[in-house]
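User: Need the bound-state model for adenosine-5'-diphosphate:
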Amino acid sequence: MPIQILADEVASQIAAGEVVERPASVVKELVENALDAGAQQITIRIEGAGQRLIEVADDGRGIPFEEIPLAVARHATSKLRRADELFHIQTLGFRGEALASIASVSRFTLESCAENESAGGRVRVEGGRKASLEPAGVPGGTLVRVEDLFFNTPARLKFLKKPVTEKSAIDALVVRYALAYAGIRFQLFQDNKPVLRTSGNGDRREILAQLYDLETARRMIAVEREDGEKSIDGFISPVSLTRSNRKDITFFINGRWVQDVTLATALLRAYHTLLMVGRYPLAALFLDLPPEEVDVNVHPAKAEVRFRKPDEIFALVQRCVRRGLLEQSPVPEISSPVWSSIPLQPVVDPAWRIAHAVGGVESNPDEPAPVPPFPAAAAEVPVFPSGELPLLRLVGQVGAAYLVAEAPDGLYLIDQHAAHERVLFEKYKRQQETRIPSQPLLMTETVTLPPPAARLLEEELEAVNRLGFQVETFGPQTFLVRAVPVLFAAGEPAAMLRALVEDFEEDETPLKQEREARLIGRICKRMAVKAGKILSPEEQQALVRDLEACSSPRTCPHGRPTMIHLSVDLLERQFGRRGSR
Ligand code: ADP
Ligand code: MG
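Assistant: Bound-state model below.
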């Protein structure tokens, strides 16, 4: 075939492949256009999971009559003139290709009436073929109707997921935009049924309840942080509220929903020592950055961005989240899986217990009055402020692994290893704020490590020496240890060096500070007292006192609980003294 310039229609259809992947992407583009037009109210109607109809109506500034045909032309935009403006972009759109792309793969109608014009106009496009502009008596604002999406690109149709999946992708998208733009009224209908309606009063927590559920929304922690021209605010979940995947992590940058690994990683890092392995937080965070700090023109769908200074953004997110978590260190009260593993056999019928442990989902008609599920009740009444512990009275050690303590609010079972790890970690971190005291060894020790570990230690030597060690390279794989941190003076220098560099690679992190925290975490874990060690009453007492003094006493630095709390309330209910009759 000879070389030819593609017909505009064909070029648009090809471009549409990038912008219009599924019905939800159409909704995104149309909602963003409405937002760019300064709409105060946006109404979205979906039929047939977006395949039969997507209609977005707004009360924005509208399009002047004679510009209407241009709106659906390719590379036509009112938002950008010169390429260099890309780096100061204030609008969500700028590529001027969304409407043309959508119109090339659907039966498309646009009606609009500009603010200062008395009558509006309408243009129809079918599979990229434009009909002429006609006047239309339409109210102010713009309405776009997209019917029979992908009718002329059957291959695309085959890639669509089940209707319920496409529908929920649309719901998820609209509710997130509603959350980001809480000052704007959103309405969403699916097959004429209202799915979402927001008041536009600016209250984000109200909308959070529609994104998750009421209880989840209530428990989310509001966070906020400013750093010069950059700021961030939004909601994060307490450590007791997690998911098994990252789907509930949402980031907006300058009003744009983005999927970005740097941001997600920063968030996860902030939770790092607080969550169990394989659990993820929920978050809806909104960043405001000077436009020149972000490049949004990375992908046609504009869901990816590039940062000019990723480290700064990373640190901003991490600090904000970390602060929010520490200020409101929640109560990792006993949760149902832990509970069901505690054998309390003869007390109640197991079926009864299980039904209530999972929140009373099954109910048996012969049963006594329903008992509120205890995890929720326990989480609602934190007897002691934030993460603090009440004064504990030590009862003793069990199984050479757990300490039992009592407090006015019930019984505490403490994991001695996890608790000691937390204590060491906080002491070490506190010392790090000034200078970590080191203890010279009476006899310098030489330690030989396997080559990969030796190489890693060599790379981290500076950091290690800032942490209270005095270590020098001695031979190709050999190190000379002259001093160790006072905190670990009783430990084995060789074991400490190994603990420092064990599987370091997978932890590679851009921030120096973060890397040091990792080193600290690692060594504390190694040096903490093990399960199986019998502790003297004095040692038990000291551990409990030290734990009480910690700022996050309830989890170890790796996120496992240090303790299980059996509240008086819980004990009373389990013994049938209260609530069950
Ligand atoms: P972009 O948003 O990148 O400019 P689009 O193809 O989405 O490209 O839209 C093209 C142009 O049509 C926009 O620049 C804008 O001027 C106009 N337009 C589209 N939707 C609306 C709307 N809802 N209200 C007012 N103007 C709109
Ligand atoms: Mg647009």
